[in-house]
Here is the input.
Amino acid sequence: MTNPVPAPVDACAAVVRWPNDATERVRARATGRPRLLVIDPDATPPLDCGLDEDWTTTTAPPADVAARLAALATRPSRRHRLPFDLAAELDDASIAVYDLLAERAPRPASFESLADAVGPAGDLATTVRRLRRALGTVDADILTVSGGALLVAVQRTR
Here is the structure.
């Protein structure tokens, strides 16, 4: 049996078990935190790795893990990042919707894709209302645009 790769105490990247911690991956991505996915033995890596993401296996040598973490620290993060304290207050559905909107920005995301992010047990309208209220504290908003899509817009203050 292999042990999970521990994260260094001062790591700026999130070390996430894949596929077990898929929700944590989305949460880290929404906050702009780089991610090192540690792939379980019988799993395949995700096909949608971003520039601020890398993966390794649970059997990787510590030097390989350290090199990947160091490389992640040099990569730029996404433009729209959710503050950590705000992310800690939001539920997983709200984080998933924000993550999708931030990934698509400045293009709109369809209601269908947002509903998929919320999941079959969730309510998109309630999730968007909750997220709009939360984003109001960080000078951001979700706008309904023509064609029935939503968009994250950052308000500029002068």
Notes: The first helix runs from residue 22 to 30. DSSP finds six helices and six strands in the chain. The CA atoms of residues 16 and 88 lie 17 Å apart. Helices lie at 22-30, 62-73, 84-89, 92-104, 111-118, 124-135.
